[in-house]
C-alpha cells in the first residue's frame, strides 16, 4: 500500500512538472462567444482535458517558491490538497474516449466537483496568510512575495473557473439566462449590471448601518442603456465591491446626516474602452495610502471570524485586489483616485471589442522563480504600475486552439508544446 501511494505521488509530481513546461492558451472573449455558439461538447472536453492541467500545474509549481513558514500553515496545506485532487481528477480523463456519452457526463460531473471543492479557496487562502502572520509575523520582504503570489494565484483561479463554469453552463444542467452564451452576454446591459450591484450593496449597507446613499446614473450619450459583449457576473462582482466600500465611507463620513450625498455613476462607451466611473463623497483616503488599497490583508474593517465555510470578505482586505484582477483578466483595469477630506473616484475600464479582450494568464518560468528570490520584486503585471508592459511572467497572446481531429486526440497538447515557457524569459 505504501509503495502504491509513493508511486501515485511520484506519477502526479512528474505529470505536474511536465504540464508546467507547456504554455497555457489564452482565449479572447470573442473565442469564448464563438465556441459557445457552436456548442460542441466533444471539443470542449478535449480542450479542457489538456488546458486545465496546464493552468493548474503552473500555479502549483509556483507554490513551491513560497516561504516555508506559509506552506506549513494548515489552511494553505488544505488549499494545496484541493489542487492536487483536482489535478488528478482531470488527469484521469487523459485517455478517455470523447465519443462515449458516458465519459462526457462523467467529465461534467468532475468539473462540478472541482468547482464545489474550490468554492472557498479565497477565504481559506486568506486564513492561511493570517495564520502565518499570527505565528511568525510578516516582514516587508516576505509580504511583497506573498502579495505577488496572491495576485497570480487568484488570477489563475479566475481563469480556470471561467473555463469550467462556461463548460458547465453550456453542457450541464444549469438553467441559464436565454440571452447568454454560457456566462457571456452578447448584449450585456451595463446599466442593468450597475443597478444589480447597487441593490446588493445597499441591502448589506442598510443591514449594518440602517441607511445608505442613493444612486445617480449618467451615460455619456444620454441613453438609458449601454451594451457590449461581456460577462455580467464579472462586472457585477467588481461594482458590488466598489459600491460596498463607497457606501460605508459615505455613511461613516456623514454620521449626523439624514440625507446622505448621492453616489454618482458615469458610463461611457468609447471605441476601445467601456468606462464606468463611480464618485462618492465619503471623505477619501490619504494619497500615501492609495497603493495600500490594493494590498491583500489591508482593511479598515474589523477582521471577520473564519468558519471554514462562507465568510464575508469585508475585513480580509480582498475586495479591491480581487476586483482589479477581474478587470485585468480580460485586459481592463481598475484605478482609484482620491481627494482626502472629500471623496473618491473609481474608474473601471473594460474592453469594448471582444477580439481585444484576451485572457491574462500567469505563467511559471525561470523569471517567475527569480521574482521570489530577488531582494525586491520586479515590476510585473500584478504591480500597481506598468503591469501591461511586462511580457515575462504572463501570457495574453491569443492563439486559436486547433480543431481536435479523430486521428490526433492530443493535438491541443502538441500545440501547447510549440512555445515553451523558456522563450518568454
What are its keywords?
about 425 residues, single chain, globular, alpha+beta, disordered N terminus, two-stranded antiparallel sheet
Structural class of the helix and strand makeup?
A: alpha+beta
Largest sheet: 5 strands, mixed
What general form does the structure show?
A: globular
Low-pLDDT stretches: 1-7, 308-313, 384-390, 404-425
Descriptive notes:
With 425 residues, the chain is of the alpha+beta class. Helices cover 48% and strands 12% of the residues. The protein is built from 13 helices and nine strands. The strands form three sheets. Strands 2-4-5-7-6 form a five-stranded mixed sheet, covered by helices on one side. Strands 1-3 form a two-stranded antiparallel ribbon. The chain has a two-stranded antiparallel sheet with strand order 8-9. The longest helix has 32 residues, at 140-171.
In short:
By secondary structure, this protein is of the alpha+beta class. The protein is 48% helix and 12% strand. The chain contains 13 helices and 9 strands.
Q: Strands, helices and their partners?
A:
Blueprint: H1 2-19, H2 29-38, H3 41-63, H4 68-71, H5 74-91, H6 101-117, H7 121-136, H8 140-171, E1 185-189, H9 190-209, E2 215-219, E3 227-230, H10 232-253, E4 263-269, E5 273-280, H11 319-329, E6 333-339, E7 343-351, E8 361-362, H12 366-373, E9 394-395, H13 411-416
Amino acid at each position: 500500500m505504501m509503495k502504491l501511494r509513493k508511486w501515485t505521488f511520484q506519477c502526479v509530481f512528474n505529470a505536474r512538472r511536465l504540464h508546467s513546461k507547456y504554455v497555457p492558451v489564452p482565449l479572447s472573449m470573442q473565442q469564448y462567444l464563438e465556441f459557445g455558439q457552436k456548442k460542441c461538447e466533444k471539443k470542449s472536453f478535449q480542450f479542457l482535458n489538456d488546458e486545465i492541467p496546464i493552468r493548474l500545474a503552473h500555479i502549483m509549481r509556483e507554490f513551491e517558491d513560497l516561504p516555508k513558514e506559509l506552506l506549513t500553515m494548515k489552511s494553505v496545506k488544505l488549499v494545496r490538497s484541493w489542487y492536487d485532487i483536482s489535478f488528478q481528477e482531470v488527469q484521469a480523463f487523459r485517455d478517455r474516449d470523447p465519443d462515449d456519452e458516458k465519459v462526457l457526463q462523467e467529465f461534467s460531473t468532475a468539473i462540478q466537483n472541482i468547482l464545489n471543492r474550490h468554492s472557498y479557496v479565497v477565504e481559506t487562502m486568506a486564513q492561511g496568510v493570517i495564520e502565518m502572520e499570527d505565528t511568525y509575523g510578516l516582514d516587508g520582504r516576505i509580504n511583497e512575495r506573498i502579495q505577488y503570489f496572491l495576485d497570480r494565484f487568484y488570477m489563475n483561479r479566475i481563469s480556470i473557473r471561467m473555463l469550467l463554469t462556461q463548460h458547465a453552463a453550456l453542457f450541464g444542467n444549469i438553467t441559464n439566462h436565454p440571452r447568454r452564451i454560457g456566462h457571456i452576454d452578447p448584449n450585456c446591459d451595463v446599466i442593468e449590471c450597475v443597478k444589480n450591484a447597487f441593490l446588493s450593496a445597499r441591502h448589506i449597507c442598510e443591514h449594518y448601518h440602517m441607511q445608505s446613499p442613493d444612486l445617480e446614473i449618467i451615460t455619456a450619450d444620454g441613453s438609458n442603456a449601454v451594451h457590449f459583449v461581456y460577462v455580467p457576473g464579472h462586472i457585477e462582482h467588481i461594482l458590488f465591491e466598489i459600491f460596498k466600500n463607497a457606501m460605508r465611507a459615505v455613511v461613516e463620513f456623514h454620521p449626523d446626516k439624514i440625507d446622505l450625498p448621492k453616489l454618482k455613476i458615469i458610463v461611457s462607451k468609447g471605441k476601445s474602452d467601456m468606462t464606468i466611473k463611480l464618485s462618492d463623497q465619503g471623505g477619501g483616503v490619504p494619497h500615501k495610502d492609495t497603493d495600500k488599497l490594493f494590498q491583500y490583508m489591508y482593511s479598515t474593517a474589523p477582521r471577520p471570524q473564519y468558519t471554514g465555510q462562507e465568510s464575508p470578505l469585508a475585513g480580509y482586505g480582498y475586495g479591491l485586489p480581487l476586483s482589479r484582477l477581474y478587470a485585468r483578466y480580460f485586459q481592463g483595469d481598475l484605478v482609484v483616485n482620491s481627494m482626502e477630506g472629500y471623496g473618491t473616484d473609481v474608474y473601471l475600464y473594460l474592453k469594448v471589442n471582444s477580439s481585444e479582450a484576451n485572457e491574462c494568464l500567469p505563467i511559471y518560468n525561470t523569471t517567475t522563480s527569480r521574482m521570489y528570490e530577488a531582494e525586491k520584486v520586479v515590476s510585473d503585471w500584478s504591480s500597481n504600475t506598468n503591469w501591461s508592459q511586462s511580457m515575462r511572467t504572463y501570457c495574453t497572446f491569443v492563439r486559436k486552439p486547433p480543431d481536435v481531429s479523430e486521428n490526433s486526440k492530443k493535438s491541443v497538447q502538441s500545440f501547447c508544446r510549440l512555445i515553451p515557457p523558456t522563450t518568454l524569459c
